[in-house]
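Write out structure tokens for Microsomal triglyceride transfer protein large subunit.
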Amino acid sequence: MILLAVLFLCFISSYSASVKGHTTGLSLNNDRLYKLTYSTEVFLDRGKGKQEDSVGYRISSNVDVILLWRNPDGDDDQLIQITMKDVNVENVNEQRGEKSIFKGKNPPKIIRKENLEALQRPVLLHLVHGKVKEFYSYPNEPVAIENLKRGLASLFQMQLSSGTTNEVDISGDCKVTYQAHQDKVTKIKALDSCKIERSGFTTSNQVLGVTSKATSVTTYKIEDSFVIAVFAEETHAFRMNFLQTIAGNIVSKQKLELKTTEAGPRLIPGKQVAAVIKAVDSEYRALPIVGQNFQSECKGCPSLAEHWQSTRKHLQPDNLSKAEAVRSFLAFIQHLRTARREEILQILKAESKEVLPQLVDAVTSAQTSDSLDAILDFLDFKSDSSVILQERFLYACGFASHPDEELLRALISKFKGSFGSNDIRETVMIIAGALVRKLCQNEGCKLKAVVEAKKLILGGLERAEKKEDTMMYLLSLKNALLPEGIPLLLKYAEAGEGPISHLATTTLQRYDVRFITDEVKKTLNRIYHQNRKVHEKTVRTTAATIILNNNPSYMEVKNILLSIGELPKEMNKYMLAVVQDILRFEMPASKMVRRVLKEMVIHNYDRFSKSGSSSAYTGYIERAPHSASTYSLDILYSGSGILRRSNLNIFQYIGKANLHSSQVVIEAQGLEALIAATPDEGEENLDSYAGMSAILFDVQLRPVTFFNGYSDLMSKMLSASGDPVSVVKGLILLIDHSQELQLQSGLKANMDVQGGLAIDISGAMEFSLWYRESKTRVKNRVALAIVGSITVDSSFVKAGLEISAETEAGLEFISTVQFSQYPFLVCMQMDKDGVPFRQFETKYERLSTGRGYVSRRRKESLVAGSEFPLHQENSDMCKVVFAPEPESSSGGWF
């Protein structure tokens, strides 16, 4: 909170005006000079309230106030002059001692002579009924200096009666509430209501977002019916939602106290205030009392090219597994946001192919008009020689923290053009869907580009003639999640061929519960129970999962449970595992399932003793009072023991908000002929295929194919190296929050939180006829860094606090199946290695002349590896077949 000290007026009969005589605001007495003391101070900390741990500064001065003019027709219309004198700047932390940046420096050297002269030039304030009518100052003064005078002048605005109203002061047009008491008047300003032009943005998803809170209270002290002092306190606090150690606090205070009064100049006669102001000094100009924006000069700062030269070594491919790479990535984005198109294009054209993909990640993540123009000029979508760069650009667009209409319009324009690679064409449409969703989440659904993109997605899906185009538009809709697309999804889910039907149902699975209506569930029930046509197991199980996860009715649950025992072997086991997982993890449907299980015809040994190796399991990675991370793994096999689908999901929850952090799905089909096995019902004519699909931070990526067709399969089996196929690799700006704050003292503050990660998700599927064994492997490697900072700037002195955290981590999932016998042996393992977790705190105070104070602290810990159960019937048989795994691995043969 900021302690705002305003001393208003009047002191004793002949010295000041009585509160009782004015019903609206305060008033000065004629022919008096009011001598006051004023101070404003600001300090930054991590919200612990210990001033000795804070950084900041105090600006103090004497203040002379005189009444120049009063409207002869009304006492509550007056013009006053406010002059600051004897300005001083000092540390707010008195323990700084010899380390004080102000030690040995007088105000002209700290503030600069020209700034000090401007600060001590008087301003005029026209008050009507206690509210600011106009603020007058000299033109062409430094904006930062004028803001300090605006902060002082705003203290003279108040009313003496209780009530709620809107006032315009340095903070903007704000809602304020007055509470009048006998010995004081309290003004509470709702800072979140203030209308003021300031730059800023945030991440739309609350899990990755930042919670901020601001308060402002001003107290007018009254003694013997006179106001003798004013105190004000303003606070701004922030914290990251999922990592609450990233937090900061700004406390700003003002104090204005009356010391004495003496004889002053006589009132200037006149009925019009304009004539009076001209008589005082014709140079005065009416200026907004609302704080104006300014940027501090950066003398001798490196150019963008120089910044890049110091950054690029950290972004070499071999360094991307280190958190230092992510820190460098985040820092360079900040420089890109102030760079011109020509500067950015120059370093793009000059960079080598090894580092260029990382540079494309950074330029795209900057999300400015100049950076977008530069990258679009650099990339040639008609060429297939830069596919990797084009893909990195598109994925960075999909992960954009605050995309705008210009970016979506650019992708639509590219989609209508020609491409050197069809994969890139598909990715453009898929990512356009992700941008549509993000813009709609920020109330941008009616933007022209969004409307056009929606028509493109839905119209393309309705008119698609090729299977590839249908899949592309479905994937785009899987990102966009348009409610109006649900009828089309139901059509393709029920009537489409296998892969299309499966993709349509998995798209429906991503919709919020409010969109899964009874009509939608009717179609899903028909699919699961195969009322109209035979469907693949993957489609049927997905339909059943959607029903069970979206407020299922008694009969829906009963019919699904009754079907267990009548399904193909592995599907029986899978559906049984799904139901048991719902009960064990206490999912929302668990109450309804327990109700149905009271019927003996359903809950019996025959139904719940089906053998098989398919499974479904959900567990916690981390669990805290305010948050949780969960993982879920479901694996569906064909009756012959070959993997049909492996689905690994990780979710993050903060309160009621959630984030689908990742999903990696490996699918295979049509492989039974290799081992002379009989395909399951509905899957007799499937082509041989294996591939992987991923969702990363709520964005569906373009699927990757391992092989497609029998000849492609045999070719890759003979030449297979076992090396994983990369699904996504790059640097991602994950958290992006920026607030520019106008403190009511006149100082400018900034709150920024950026978080990024270097990520590499890869997967592989190995198949051995000789050993009659198949193995799937999914590997996640990430390096994460988060940096939160708060700064307060007066143009001549700046204080800042930076809190950061970083880690490097890995998660690997391996599933091995031996199908030489039935029931076949399955070993599932998920390794999470021990990870280092480092936290840093940097505090500083710095003069514009270069002198500074810096304090740094570091804390490091090791988070032990964890074992995650992957099945409800874990055993130790993995250890018999394979060599022992590391301690951080969990597994079991089933």
